[in-house]
Amino acid sequence: MKRILLMFGMIAMWISASAQKPNIAPSATVTASSCNTGACSTLNDLNLGTCGTQSMWISTSSPPSSVPGVNYIEWNWTSPQSFDEMVIHHANNATARHLSGATMQMYSGGNWVTVGSFSNLAPNCSNTISFSRVTTNRFRITSFQVNGPGQTSNPNFREIEILRASTAPNDVGVSMIDTAQAVCPGLSPVNVTIQNYGTNQVDSLIVNWSMNGVLQTPATVVVSLDTLGTANPSSARVTIGTYNFALATNYALVAWTTMPNGVADTSTFNDSASAIVHLGAPTGLTASNVGAYDATVSWYGNGGTAFSVEWGPTGFTQGTGTVVAASDTFKVVTGLQPLTSYDIYVWANCVPVGTSLIAGPITITTGCPGNISGTYTLNPGLPYSATNFTSFTQLALALNVCGITGPVTV
Known about the structure:
By secondary structure, this protein is mainly beta. It is 2% helix and 48% strand. It has one helix at 392-401, and strands at residues 16-18, 29-32, 56-57, 72-90, 101-108, 111-118, 126-145, 156-164, 172-178, 180-182, 186-196, 202-211, 214-215, 219-225, 235-245, 251-258, 272-279, 283-288, 295-300, 307-313, 322-326, 330-333, 341-348, 359-365, 372-375, 377-378, 388-389, 404-409. The strands form 7 sheets. Strands 2, 3, 4, 5, 6, 7 and 8 form a 7-stranded antiparallel β-sheet that branches. Strands 10, 12, 13, 14, 16 and 17 form a 6-stranded mixed β-sheet that branches. The chain has a 4-stranded antiparallel β-sheet with strand order 1-9-11-15, with no helix packed on it. The two termini are 40 Å apart. The model is unreliable at 1-16 (pLDDT under 50).
């Protein structure tokens, strides 16, 4: 299959620019169960370093102890602080020693009290963790999880930021701007993500914006945003207007909010965000309802109206997979084999010719066709069937996740 790939700018990345709340970690004294290579203070010295190079590491067992207080990082402020986000800048991304989870605790009434936890962090160079507002002068993360790949002990870091929470009742801001704003040349929607940072629920606001320094028509947004940390959404991706995007051109987009709930926003430090935007790939590619034989794939079209979805076994070469057309921003991928990993890509088909940049891959692993019981073969030369597994990995996965209801013979 041949495709004409439109060149959409100087950079071909799928990243987002986001607003930054004040980082209060540097005003704290940081201690830890152990600090190696670098001092504990390297965790809040505002030197983010380079992904792949550690500033410090903490000695743990493999895996780390789940008992609170055995391994920890602690922040102490001279007065109580309110915060609701933490950004962990890991020394490595997907290689080893990556902190994938922890328990969060505050010191209150002479005891450490658990206020939340996080787990299954993606192996990125940096991760942002959002949680319900915490107000304290002593805070720690403990009961580390280091799930791999690679070494599952001694997590290493470059920096950890703790971001101040707003205490204003009506406080909304632009939290993120996708740098890929459109997939094909021409008039396309402009989208940003808004976030409720305040203590009140929000039902309306105004989003102001400019492109290349030229003010655009403000957008009045009617939306229901709950407060941070609740079960209901506190953020939303919204369209604020349209813009005519050209090939191989970058644009400076600035967006900021005003008048949440029809009143003045008294906390303005988190109102705005800016980014260099351009044509790019569909964004937000994700999979859901992954079953034994199918899965639903969805994405943000960013103005596109016709798309192609390609999938194949994990690691397949693009152009050799199964390709289907999609006229909406989702597709049910069918004909999959149980207990098998697949890579999935999506791109837009532009009119009159060409395609967008390609989103992906995302990787899915299909589920079980049923419980395991009876006699099976392990033969990679035959396709998967109700009685044959194609690899030891597939067999092990079935035994681990499908459930065994009787004797199994292989």
